[in-house]
């Protein structure tokens, strides 16, 4: 790193999340300067296919001028307003109505927040509030899953089921429990069918509810397909079985659609793909294509009614953020949803997704590949050490190394330990999917 270079200044002044700080001091940043469609360019002018759409986010690609115009127009008309004390504005009202219309099940109200973490954090508060309203103060626990990802605030990080989000942070908080991760390839037992594994996942959940006491469990939160935990596609009957257990005990179902929402799985929501009937749904990322920090959750009547009663009893619903329902974010979201609809990006995700999954499946027998998996335009290639390599490599080392090779070959992926995740913009073309798969092939061939 040259002294005073942009890289050196990053190391000097910028602490990065999800980065080893000491390793960063040594290697410095990858500085991205601009984007165009599915590509981003670094400050050396090198082009990469952004195979992760940033962080599972940029549905419409990296230079969509309609979103820029929507933001600019809204900034000129009303750059900021809030939603406290009965105040509202057109973009928030239009977006709330639009989201309720799009919902996979009948929903009642939308609450706006600014990140996925904040949305899930708020959901937990709302659930506690609701249980108090119902005169069930003991019904406060939430169950999530090992390797699930729900964010990084104190409550949402607690619901996240990944060790690095808990270790040394004194998390999880009390009352947040984690049940089995539905990853057959990793968690399935010898001789156990995928169907039997799904049954066992549901039985594990049932047993946890029984042992904690069904009256103490308020909600179960899960992503339709786990993203940040390594792209975990559940067995076909998993969701049906899990929903059967929840229905037995009057436990709310929260579908965290922060990654799956708005087309990623080839249907509008992951809940459509798996016939999930949530009481609450979390949305962010592809809602604005992450051009603006924005998130929301919607709830059905069963959730809303007691909350409204409690707010009425107290005199106010004592929650909300300065930037809740930010007009610029809402305007960007509305335009983004229009683009997704007009260009049938959900249909494109289904078609290009099938090509991506088939392309990756070709490597299933490669000595470095343990499993390929995915649905629509979300996928993973799980790396394993070749036979005879021993256990010399630390977990995640294969993934980190593969990322370096991908970068050299012009592809950005994200390694979740040794699973290489792919989640490209929904605008990706057939040729670009094929280019991605070619880079993966070349990278596997040159892996050393
Ligand atoms: N929920 C899911 C499913 C996510 O994938 C993420 C982020 O990756 C979050 C919540 C947290 O969102 P944010 O990073 O905007 O706080």
TrEMBL record:
UniProt entry tagged with the keyword Transferase: yes
The organism's place on the tree of life at top rank: Bacteria
E.C. number: 2.6.1.18
Entry's Gene Ontology molecular function annotations: adenosylmethionine-8-amino-7-oxononanoate transaminase activity; beta-alanine:pyruvate transaminase activity; pyridoxal phosphate binding
EC category: transferase
Coiled coil: none
GO biological process: biotin biosynthetic process; gamma-aminobutyric acid metabolic process
SUPFAM superfamilies found in the cross-reference section: PLP-dependent transferases
Keyword terms: Aminotransferase, Pyridoxal phosphate, Transferase
Keyword Transferase (UniProt): yes
Similarity remark: Belongs to the class-III pyridoxal-phosphate-dependent aminotransferase family.
Protein name: Aminotransferase
Organism for this UniProt entry: Roseobacter denitrificans (strain ATCC 33942 / OCh 114)
């Amino acid at each position: 790193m040259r002294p005073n270079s942009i890289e050196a200044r990053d190391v000097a002044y910028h602490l990065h999340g999800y980065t080893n700080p000491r390793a960063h001091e040594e290697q410095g940043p990858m500085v991205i300067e601009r984007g165009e469609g599915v590509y981003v360019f670094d400050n050396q002018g090198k082009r990469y296919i952004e195979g992760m759409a940033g962080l599972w986010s940029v549905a419409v690609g990296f230079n969509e001028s309609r979103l820029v115009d929507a933001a600019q127009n809204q900034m000129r008309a009303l750059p900021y307003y809030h939603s406290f004390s009965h105040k509202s504005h057109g973009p928030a009202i239009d977006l709330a109505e639009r989201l309720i219309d799009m919902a996979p099940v009948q929903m009642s109200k939308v609450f706006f927040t600014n990140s996925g973490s904040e949305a899930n954090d708020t959901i937990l508060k709302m659930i506690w509030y609701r249980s108090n309203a119902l005169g069930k103060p003991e019904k406060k626990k939430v169950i999530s899953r090992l390797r699930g990802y729900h964010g990084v605030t104190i409550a949402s990080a607690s619901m996240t089921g990944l060790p690095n989000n808990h270790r040394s942070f004194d998390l999880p908080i009390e009352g947040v429990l984690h049940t089995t991760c539905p990853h057959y390839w990793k968690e399935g037992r010898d001789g156990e069918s995928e169907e039997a594994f799904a049954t066992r996942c549901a039985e594990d959940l049932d047993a946890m509810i029984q042992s904690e006491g069904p009256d103490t469990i308020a909600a179960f939160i899960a992503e339709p397909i786990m993203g940040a935990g390594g792209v975990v596609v559940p067995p076909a009957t998993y969701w049906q079985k899990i929903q059967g257990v929840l229905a037995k005990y009057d436990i709310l179902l929260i579908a965290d659609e922060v990654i799956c929402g708005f087309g990623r799985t080839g249907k509008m929501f992951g809940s459509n793909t798996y016939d999930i009937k949530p009481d609450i749904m979390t949305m962010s990322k592809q809602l604005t294509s992450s051009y603006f920090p924005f998130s929301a959750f919607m709830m059905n009547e069963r959730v809303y009614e007691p909350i409204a009663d409690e707010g009425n009893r107290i005199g106010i619903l004592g929650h909300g953020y300065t930037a809740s329902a930010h007009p610029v974010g809402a305007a960007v979201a509305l335009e983004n949803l229009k683009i997704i609809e007009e260009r049938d990006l959900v249909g494109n995700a289904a078609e290009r997704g099938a090509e991506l999954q088939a392309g990756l499946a070709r490597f299933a027998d490669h000595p470095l590949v343990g499993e390929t998996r995915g649905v629509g335009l979300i996928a993973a290639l799980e790396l394993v050490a070749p036979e005879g390599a021993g256990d010399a490599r630390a977990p995640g080392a294969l993934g980190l190394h593969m990322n370096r090779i991908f970068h050299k070959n012009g592809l950005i992926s994200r390694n979740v330990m040794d699973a290489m995740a792919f989640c490209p913009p929904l605008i990706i073309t057939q040729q670009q999917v094929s280019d991605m798969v070619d880079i993966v092939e070349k990278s596997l061939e040159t892996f050393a």
